[in-house]
Amino acid sequence: MSDPSNGPEERRDRRWSQGMRGVLWVSAGALAIHLIPLFLPRNMPEQELAIARATENIDSRLTYLVPLKSNDKATAQDLRTAAELLQEGAPAQAHDLALEAERRDPTAVETQLLLASICDVERMSRCVEQSLNKAIELAPADPRADLLWADLSEKKGDLANATEALARAHKRVPGDALVGVRYGRLLSRMGQPDDALKVFATLEGRMPPARLLVEQGLVLSKSGRSREAVNLLQQAVQADPKLAEGHFQLGLAWAQLGNDDAAEEALLRADRLNVADTRPLATLCTLQVKAGRFEGARQTRTDLERRFPQRMDAIREQCRLP
């Protein structure tokens, strides 16, 4: 005779009980990990930083972080981290912490970059310049000060100063593809396509050929040289058929030339290669409306709305149907 204690219900209860114990152990372990900082000695900077990171309240952060300025165990890096956590909500206190970091490690370029960012929040333009100039003095071959200078200038809409800063950064690291691409794009925005193309020419062999062709094609498109742009972008997608951005930009260039069929083919290809990007179908929808192909535009917009329901309002705004 079988033992009723081994019935299906008891076995199910036993498995459930074992599963719950496992969940409880995992939860207890996770809780212990998060509570560890609370049991560290209170004069350890790591603990103060950990607690400050765990709260968004600026007053609470001040309570934990400001005392680090007089904590002998706090390193310059600890003080910079504390200043970063206070930069937006309490820039004056962040500034004090950054100055203490500078006192403890006067040769750190990172401190000068942080001071420049904080001074920008405080709208202290002279302080920004002084900090960036000091960063350049400390590391003449380091482009980060000029890149930050470009960021801050561009944020204010001062594209001329941003361009000059990127020119300096490019001169310091002429083979750096990220710096070169950014500089070339800004030159293109500033209406200097020939200078932009010269910058991109210096990047040959330093970035994938197809991506470089796309960048060069973009410069030509923005300067109205659409036929030349199409030629370069066709070379780009031939070199890398799976480069979604290449097909997208080719679609835009074809549209500039009025070749809607070629534009649609390129845009659909870009969409298939990167289904997370709304731009190809949104652009196609706009072109279809402009051409009076309303049924096609309606279907394109429906596809977009089905795929990106969280962006439905923006999609309808971008592609308005009569």
TrEMBL record:
The lineage of its organism: Bacteria, Pseudomonadati, Myxococcota, Myxococcia, Myxococcales. InterPro entries: TPR-like_helical_dom_sf, TPR_rpt. This is Tetratricopeptide repeat protein. Its main location: membrane. It is a single-pass membrane protein. It comes from Corallococcus terminator. Belongs to the Tom70 family. It holds the Pfam family TPR_19. It is found in: Membrane. The chain crosses the membrane at residues 22-40.
